């Protein structure tokens, strides 16, 4: 690890000396302004702090690799557009920012799909989080990320701050950052936890944060929040990718599938016992989802097998999580390990993320059943990604994995 960390720190030091500035990633020549490496910290409930506007305001946005557009809650809130009125300080309002600009629907580089006479923007009955853009009679570009948020497409200056130790002053600035100013957000508060103002898009869409920062690589190495410190997402040249990491190709999914990162799932094992080995299915990797989701039959098979291996036990559920009674004092590390069989790589989920203690004589797994509406039945969420470095290369369309002690690795590296 040491060998990969030293060049990384050098990059960070270099980066500290320059203020990286990007003009709108959507408008100008892609050859200039290569972005530097960047550590973007995030809190245990998976939100990052971003700064928008002039003068600046700071918002907490949840990391999301299934929503195509970054959006945050905006004024105005009227009869049609309900907002959470309990916290007006957390809303973005373009009229207080000198760098704010609404995007009109004749901006062909940003709203290429608009048909000028479409007025009814709430009728798009999509079941996915894919993005639709529509034109209002007043010539503004409305967006709708179905089931999440609708509002106006706008642009303003974005600042990201890397707050890693003495990196407090390193900034990445994007002028003309395009995002959704949500006047009709339908994200339930419990979906995002408290204090979250919107979502930051980590997809491959041209409106995503990655595209607008003009980076094609990022990585994370998550440790459990019980370890206390914040986690980081590494962007651009600071991303961990390649080297000894195991590459796994991303699958091309249909346009309508909202998750961006899918890989083939050839089977699941609990310790040596293999389940579902004769059928290939897919799994989305999504840091914005906390619990791992499995299609119902696979979930039931895993549950039966856990009961067989740890028995005698009684299974129960808490908030949809699969839970079991055990003898008093059984260590989490001694519980059976779950392995996902990917192409050329066996991913053994860390017990630190997979099991949660419910009481001295019971524990839960970080597994939930997928529902009929879920378009991707299997999703490996953040809790299943602990203690793995996971790299994403969106241009090569590859993921890369490597087992680590992420906290020790990070602390040693600093
Ligand atoms: C865009 O629309 C506005 C308002 O209708 C109009 O004033 C402007 O000329 C248009 N711009 C272009 C480039 O068509
Ligand atoms: C389209 O929007 C971008 C970003 O706000 C802006 O730079 C550009 O001038 C706009 N183009 C037109 C034709 O309005
Ligand atoms: C849009 O509406 C205007 C006014 O109603 C009409 O003149 C025009 O033909 C319509 N355009 C299209 C493409 O339907
Ligand atoms: C579209 O929206 C209008 C007004 O909100 C509503 O009356 C109509 O039933 C909707 N159509 C569909 C197909 O949902
Ligand atoms: C996915 O699509 C890209 C470009 O369309 C293609 O180069 C690549 O081979 C495809 N990958 C798979 C696994 O089919
Ligand atoms: C193949 O999978 C199906 C469905 O999961 C299962 O019913 C069947 O027993 C499996 N066959 C073998 C040989 O494992
Ligand atoms: C993954 O585990 C299976 C056993 O379930 C084993 O046969 C296979 O060789 C392993 N693959 C790798 C790449 O280690």
UniProtKB/TrEMBL annotation:
One of its GO terms (cellular component) is extracellular region. Keywords: Hydrolase, Protease, Signal. GO terms for molecular function: peptidase activity. The keyword RNA-binding does not apply. GO terms for biological process: proteolysis. Residues 46-402 form the Peptidase A1 domain. InterPro entries: PEPTIDASE_A1, Peptidase_aspartic_dom_sf, Plant_Aspart_Prot_A1, TAXi_C, TAXi_N. Residues 1-20 form the signal peptide. Pfam families: TAXi_C (PF14541), TAXi_N (PF14543). Belongs to the peptidase A1 family. This is Peptidase A1 domain-containing protein. The lineage of its organism: Eukaryota, Viridiplantae, Streptophyta, Embryophyta, Tracheophyta.
């Amino acid at each position: 690890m040491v060998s990969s960390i030293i060049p990384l720190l050098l990059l960070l030091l270099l980066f500290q000396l320059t203020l990286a500035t990007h003009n709108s990633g959507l408008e100008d020549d892609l050859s200039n302004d290569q972005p530097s490496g960047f550590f973007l910290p995030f809190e245990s409930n998976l939100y990052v702090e971003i700064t928008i506007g002039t003068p600046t305001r700071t918002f907490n946005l949840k990391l999301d690799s299934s929503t195509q557009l970054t959006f945050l809650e905006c004024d105005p809130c009227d009869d049609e557009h309900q907002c959470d009125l309990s916290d007006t300080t957390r809303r973005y309002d373009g009229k207080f920012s000198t760098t704010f600009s609404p995007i009109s629907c004749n901006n062909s580089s940003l709203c290429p799909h608009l048909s000028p006479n479409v007025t009814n923007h709430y009728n798009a009955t999509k079941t996915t989080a894919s993005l639709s853009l529509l034109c209002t009679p007043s010539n503004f570009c409305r967006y709708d990320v179905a089931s999440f948020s609708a509002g106006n497409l706008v642009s303003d200056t974005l600042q990201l701050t890397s707050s890693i130790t003495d990196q407090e002053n390193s900034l990445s600035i994007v002028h003309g950052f395009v995002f959704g100013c949500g006047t009709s957000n339908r994200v339930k508060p419990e979906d995002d936890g408290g204090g979250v103002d919107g979502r930051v898009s980590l997809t491959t869409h041209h409106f995503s944060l990655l595209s607008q920062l003009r980076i094609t690589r990022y990585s994370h190495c998550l440790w459990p929040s019980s370890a206390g410190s914040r986690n980081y997402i590494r962007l651009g040249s600071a991303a961990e990718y390649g080297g000894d990491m195991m590459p796994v190709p991303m699958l091309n999914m249909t346009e309508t599938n909202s998750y961006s990162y899918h890989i083939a799932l050839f089977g699941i094992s609990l310790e040596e016992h293999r389940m579902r080995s004769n059928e290939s299915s897919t799994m989305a990797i999504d840091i914005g989802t906390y619990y791992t989701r499995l299609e119902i039959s696979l979930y039931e098979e895993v549950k039966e097998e856990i009961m067989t291996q740890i028995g005698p036990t009684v299974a129960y559920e808490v908030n949809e999580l699969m839970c079991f009674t055990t003898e008093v004092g059984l260590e989490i590390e001694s519980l059976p390990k779950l392995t996902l069989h990917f192409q050329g790589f066996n991913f053994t989920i860390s017990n630190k993320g997979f099991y949660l203690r419910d009481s001295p004589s019971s524990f839960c797994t970080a597994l939930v059943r997928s529902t009929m509406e879920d378009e991707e039945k299997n999703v490996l969420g953040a809790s299943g990604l602990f203690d793995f470095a996971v790299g994403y290369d969106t241009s090569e369309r590859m993921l890369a994995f490597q087992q680590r002690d992420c906290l020790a690795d990070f602390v040693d590296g600093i």
